[in-house]
Amino acid sequence: MASLDWIIIAIYFAAVFFIAFRAGKTQSAEGDSAEFFLAGRNTGWLVVGASIFASNIGSEHLIGLAGTGAASGVAVAQFEIIAGFALLLLGWFFVPFYLSSGVFTMPEFLEKRFSKGARTYLAVVSVVGYVLTKISVTIAAGGIVFETLLGVDFWTGAFIVVIATGVYTVWGGLKAVLYTDALQMVILLFGAVVITVVGLNTVGGWEAMSSAAGDKAMSLWRPMSDPDFPWTGILFGAPILAVWYWCTDQYIVQRVLSANGIEGARRATIMAAALKQLPLFIFVIPGVIAAVLVDQGRLTLAQPDAALPTLIGELLPVGLRGLLVAGLLAALMSSLSSVFNSCSTIVTMDLYKPLRPEAGERELVTVGRVSTTALVGLGLLWIPFIQLVSGQLFQYLQEVQSYIAPPIAAVFLIGLLWKGANARGAAWTLGLGAVIGIAKLLLVINSDALSGPLLWVAGINFLEFAFILFLISGVILVLTSGKEVSAEAQSLMIGGAEAAADYEEARSRDKWMSLAVLALIAVIWVVFS
């Protein structure tokens, strides 16, 4: 890295801190929980939409997409494309219920719709999942970026990222996170476009790349026999995981809860749905480019996941290299700040406040800041365990969320559609669904010692299993629910008076923009079939 690259990186950090501290100045003086955790519920749709996109794209996400693109082609982009459907569903279907309920968190919404037990379950699962996967993996990715591209020791790099991100998140709350996300999205997109354009120019253009990569690598659709991305799993299982992640997970939905009304929240989701069609071209395609260059003997990769860092180091000149590193850091810090804030919100509002309902606004903000600081420490402490555990076993750990997600998605979705779903049904669904999901995970881990039907179950693709578990969860919810549903719960479902009263008339432009996103998805599916 040349001096100019370091100067660009330093300017990036300075800009992030300037925006974060300016954004957090007002709320830090007021000590208001809605201001700290939800940015005062008055954020414009452009900032919310940018934050949804930026918080989702972490450094490990970028590296993983490019790495899978290098190893097996563009099929991995289906998860990004399908996210467009889920985001539109969030804006048109879920948002009116969430905003009309006035909740801070998704566990709190479950309590209003079902029971306190459902709230506690989702709160605990979310916090544990965030600490074990999102926080620690993102911190580790930051250390790798510093070590690989900047020549800085792994631990020093991880420490810098955690402290820098933690400081502005603790200080400014969600408002600081949202506005720094907007800056980081611009840097991220610009950097990704640069590496894609330079890479395509290096291989001789799009046609040359497509021809060299081959039809299979350039197809989004794989046969049922494909071990990773069978079309059955993509069509039926991936949407279930998408509904859970994009429509019910605090990590994403908290941004929507900060919007200045239903219309603003909906427009933010439409914007994010459109942006989610870009990763195929600017994150996955660079991986395909790297694979082509390797086949041509013009590039050497230690492993597929090294595709993006290697392209940055080999193809970009001084200055642009620093810009791309800033883009990677932007992706990482955006995701990390988002998960810090979302997790501290759940700890404060769903675990602390129920134990101390008399807590004042300033006390809640203080608890939020303290819990964020604690999460920073936990994330650092967990990194050595990630390094000790084999990559395969840690992959199983990450898949825990895939096995637990379908019951949660079923409870949210069916709970809004069917008035008969009640607290007892939700408890049985979440409990039995988790048991089934964990049982599948254990079968996968011990698959080498299995035979017969158990081996067959262990071998079911996790996307196809997600769809099966969603159906099982739906049946459990229907069979175990009784007839007693509270008046408050009835207001939080289709036809409920509370949601209906706050459901604003959608503007024609929003409808047309949503249709345009759906048309774009259809075109991408056809072109890359």
In short:
Helix content is 79%, strand content 0%. The chain is mainly alpha-helical. Helix 3 crosses helix 12 and helix 17 packs antiparallel against helix 18.
Summary tags:
79% helix; mainly alpha; Sodium/glucose cotransporter; single chain
Q: How would you explain this protein's 3D organization?
A:
The chain has 23 helices and no strands. It is mostly helical and 529 residues long. It folds into 2 domains: 3-388, Sodium/glucose cotransporter (Up-down Bundle), CATH 1.20.1730.10; 390-494, no CATH class. Helix 4 packs across helix 13 (279-295) and helix 7 (116-150) runs antiparallel to helix 17 (391-417). The longest helix has 50 residues, at 154-203.
Topology summary:
Layout: H1 3-30, H2 33-38, H3 45-56, H4 59-72, H5 78-101, H6 106-113, H7 116-150, H8 154-203, H9 206-213, H10 231-248, H11 250-257, H12 262-275, H13 279-295, H14 307-315, H15 320-352, H16 361-388, H17 391-417, H18 423-445, H19 452-458, H20 462-480, H21 487-491, H22 497-502, H23 508-527
Helix pairs in contact: 1-8, 1-15, 3-8, 3-11, 3-12, 3-15, 4-13, 5-10, 5-12, 5-23, 6-7, 7-8, 7-15, 7-16, 7-17, 8-13, 8-15, 8-16, 10-11, 10-17, 10-20, 11-15, 12-23, 13-14, 15-16, 17-18, 17-20, 18-19, 18-20
- How many angstroms separate the termini? 40 Å
Q: Indicate the mean pLDDT.
A: 85
Percent of residues in helical segments? over 70%
CATH first level of the largest domain: which class? Mainly Alpha
CATH homologous group name of the largest domain: Sodium/glucose cotransporter
Order of helices and strands: HHHHHHHHHHHHHHHHHHHHHHH
Classification by helices and strands:
mainly alpha
What is the gyration radius calculated from CA atoms?
22 Å
Number of helices: 23
- Total number of strands: 0
Major sheet, described briefly? none
Counting structural domains, the number is 2
CATH-defined architecture of the largest domain: Up-down Bundle
Overall form = globular
- The parts where pLDDT drops under 50 for at least 5 residues are 390-394, 497-504
Instruction: Tell me the β content.
Output: under 5%
Task: Report the CATH topology name of the largest domain.
Answer: Sodium/glucose cotransporter
